[in-house]
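=== Given protein ===
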Amino acid sequence: MLTSAEVMQLLQSMIWLLAGVGVFIVGMNFLSDALEKSAGEGMKKMLGRISNNRISGVGIGAGVTAIIQSSSATSVMVIGLVNAGVMTLMQATPIIMGANIGTTITGVLVALKNDYFNMLMYLFAFAGVMMGFFKKEKIKIAGLLCSGLGLIFVGLNVMSSEQAFGNPLVESMSQGIFGVINFPLLLILVGVIFTALIQSSSAATGVVITMVGSGVLPLDLALFIVLGANIGTCVTALLAAIGANANSKRVALIHFTFNVVGTVFFTVVVWLFRDPVINLLVSLFPGSDAMSLQMRVSVFHVIFNLTTTLLLLPFVKQLVRYSCVVIRDKKAETTSRTLKYVDERLLSMPPVALMQAKKEIDYMLSLVEENIGLSVTSIGGDPAENADRIAENEEAIDFINGALTNFLIKLTDHVDEQDEQRIGSYFHVLNDLERIGDHAENFHEIGQEMLEKKLSFSATALADIKQMYSAVMDMIGIARNVFDIEDPEHLPTLAALENQTDEMKRAFSAKHFSRLSEGNCSLEVSPYYISTIAGLERVADHLVNVGYSICNPVGDDKENETLRRK
């Protein structure tokens, strides 16, 4: 029976342990956020190289996870990309495999800590907090990185301190607990539950490594808990797949299956050949100091993920086929309209989310371009021929405008000042594209009304409209190119074409009224002609705003006018 003093000691040790875990997880989050922000362009480039090459896929997965220090976050990101239709299952599977390799870096860092390294990390934590008081964004991000890295080791040292594990009661209690659950399957279950609760296999592995280094947890038992942690990390991806499409659910299933197969394989190996495995790890890192003890667990974690990836990489097609058999497409499923390239799961990855938002805007621009072409040809032709396609595109344009605007509003809370300005420009581009879509719809309605009233433009009027239409289509191509590559080189050409449409409108209006006065044009046709050339001129105005959005994130027309004149 424990005395009240012993109960207090145990309670104090438990609080120290929980505090250490808490500080460790906070440090991990700080480090992840800082690396995300500072390495955003690098992640964009890596994701831009996604292909069907399995080796490069593993490299991308390992690289992205090494940057953000979270295989769970990488898995959620991949699910978001698959859900948005940007990535196939064949491309996603090797990335998931690589993510497991990338997450082992944290364990290696944890195992390498010593007194001198700890002192350096403490200084990093303090320096990072001080850097957070600076106004410059880059210094703040660097401070977040330093404080995150420092706090990871502060948390680890709190966990491994005498207050946490140095208490003889804690040691005897740990021996009693692990004596009861000294069974591989139970130890794996402990790893699964613990990792699922804290939502981080890196943190769970870090705790296990620290416990081994403190002498509280025997190495042979720790290996099974680490194996369980690799299954527990799948919980985040499984939760993220809820409500996603079938392919996204398949990604989560592949991630889960991959880790389960690896865990089963290594469980059999370690269970049957426990002594040889332990002897091998001890021979690699002889000695009884904390670092040697910790490196044994860390290296086992690396070997597990590398070996599992090497074993299963040749079977990517089989894994994909298996996931399609388990999770079938619903034949009669009626899906609601969704964004093509954007998924809310990407909010945790702002650089990727911005990249995908830009793709969505470019897709919206292609719909607008198609509708302008279809609607203008309705004038003087058969409006019914393209009516359904125009209506479908217009519905998609309106949906993208609303849904992407809401997504960008949410994304604003996750980005720095520079990206916030970029999002501001996207808001204005969306607004301009939506208005161009409305003009396209108006052109189609003009064609319908004229057909119903049996009216038609003269050959001269049609030639004028085609001339303006040609200039507008040229502007669409230039505006898209400028927006895509963010290169202002062609902005003067865009501005010159917009000025040409202004001149065309004035000249064509004057010619039209001259024809009216001479009796060469019908008065009934006049409103439709004026509306058409005025609409095309307004489309040109919106297109020049799209192009100049890369120079002026606030999207002010007067400012754009000043830029065009320079």
Notes: The mean pLDDT is 82. The two ends are 86 Å apart (CA to CA). The CA atoms of residues 509 and 530 lie 7 Å apart.
